[in-house]
Design a protein that fits this description.
InterPro entries: Anti-sigma-factor_SerPK, HATPase_C_sf, HATPase_dom. Keywords: Kinase, Serine/threonine-protein kinase, Transferase. With about 130 residues, the protein is an alpha+beta fold. It has one domain: Heat Shock Protein 90 (2-Layer Sandwich). The chain is built from 3 helices and 5 strands. The chain has helices spanning about 15-30, 35-55, 105-115; strands spanning about 1-10, 65-70, 75-80, 115-120, 125-130. Strands 1-2-3-5-4 form a 5-stranded antiparallel sheet, with helices on one face. Helix 1 packs antiparallel against helix 2 and helix 2 (about 35-55) packs across helix 3 (about 105-115). The longest helix has 22 residues, at about 35-55. It starts with a strand and ends with a strand.
Length: about 130
C-alpha cells in the first residue's frame, strides 16, 4: 500500500499544493493516464474548495485533513473537516440545463469518483472518494 497524509489550513492557496501532491502521488504509483490524473486533481480541487466555501464560509483558520491511499488498483481519498455537519442527501449538483458560472463541483466529483461515501464523525465530516485505476 502507498499512502500520504497532510493537514492544511482552510485557505484556497493550499489547493494548488494538494493538486500537485495528487499528481506526484500518481507518478509514484506509476499511474500514467494524464487525462484521468487531471480529472482526479480537478475533483479534489472542487471537494476542498467546497469545504472552504460552504462548510467553513471562507474562515482561514480551520483545518482540513487529507489522506490519499493506493492499494490493489484502488485510489482512496479521505477528506476530513471539522465544521458544521452536512446532510449528505442535500448535497446535489445544480441542474446542468441551468447554464451559469459555478455550481458544478459536486457534478465533477461524482463523474470522477461516483457518489462519495460519508462517514459519521462526532465533529465535522468525513468524505471518502474511491476510484479503480486501470
Amino acid at each position: 500500500m502507498d499512502f500520504v497524509k497532510i493537514s492544511i489550513p482552510s485557505k484556497n492557496i493550499y489547493i494548488k499544493l494538494l493538486r500537485n501532491m495528487m499528481k506526484d502521488f500518481c507518478t509514484i504509483i506509476k499511474y500514467k493516464n494524464e487525462d484521468e490524473i487531471f480529472m482526479i486533481e480537478l475533483a479534489l480541487n472542487e471537494a476542498i474548495a467546497n469545504i472552504i466555501e460552504h462548510t467553513y464560509k471562507y474562515e482561514e483558520n480551520k483545518k482540513i485533513d487529507l489522506s490519499i491511499e493506493y492499494d490493489d488498483d484502488v485510489l482512496t481519498i479521505k477528506i476530513r473537516d471539522y465544521g458544521e455537519k452536512i446532510i449528505p442527501e442535500n448535497i446535489k449538483h445544480r441542474d446542468l440545463d441551468n447554464i451559469r458560472d459555478g455550481g458544478l463541483g459536486v457534478y465533477i466529483i461524482e463523474q470522477v469518483f461516483g457518489k462519495p461515501q460519508w462517514v459519521y464523525c462526532n465533529d465535522g465530516n468525513l468524505m471518502i472518494l474511491k476510484k479503480i485505476l486501470i
